[in-house]
Amino acid sequence: MKNIILMVNGVPGLAVTKFLVEQKENILRVYLHNEKDQHFANEIIEASRCDKTFLASSLKNKQHVKNLSALDIDFIFTVYWAYLLSEDVIKSARDTINFHPSLLPINRGWYPHVYNIIDDTPAGVTLHRIDVGADTGDIWVQKKVEVSVYDTAKSLYDKLIDEILLLFMKNWRKIKYSEIIPYKQNHQKANYNRKKDVADLDELHVENDKSLEDFIKIIRSRSFGNKGFSYFIKNGKKVYINLRLSKTNNFK
Asked: Which residues contact 7 (CB under 8 A, 6 or more apart)?
């Protein structure tokens, strides 16, 4: 049984929480996104069976971090966690695992599924150690994921979640018992996408010289379920686009 600090959000965070409870790991504390960024927070708290829950903002408090460092922590987990951790927080545990939905070092940072479609960069999922950089730590395990021509941002996002959870569940025991040795990333091959960069993709300038294929890639990458973020401007008004793709002409 390992002593674990969970820093988790969303569907992946809930799934990892449930899995660790099933594995009878000892969850010492649960940290959640600050309130405006939370997803499935109540479900995560209930699933964790842990009565010590905190917001991410707590980690900015020096006394709080000092108290954290006094605990006997085997692993800190960050699962779809939106905040960088300080060196003091990282060093409070013997080891760490972050879940990142890209084939690191490719597409560090935000929205890797968007750039997989637009740039044809290899897609994948990675479990890696946490350091003070963004997605720069040594890699535990990773897996390449194929991108279909039928994928939109939402379908690829969901596919990556499924694959990263499966990767973790298959390898947790090996990580836990030091049967896997993490290896360094090739930083020369790295690229980083900022959160605000994706907004620059959304306005389509239909009068320019982009090919139809390029436009389709952009629209695919910004169609997320029922939401469409791509738009063009006509008569001073934004016209939003959501793309649906199918192997047949029968859309349901």
From this structure: 30, 31, 56, 76, 77, 78, 79, 81, 83, 85
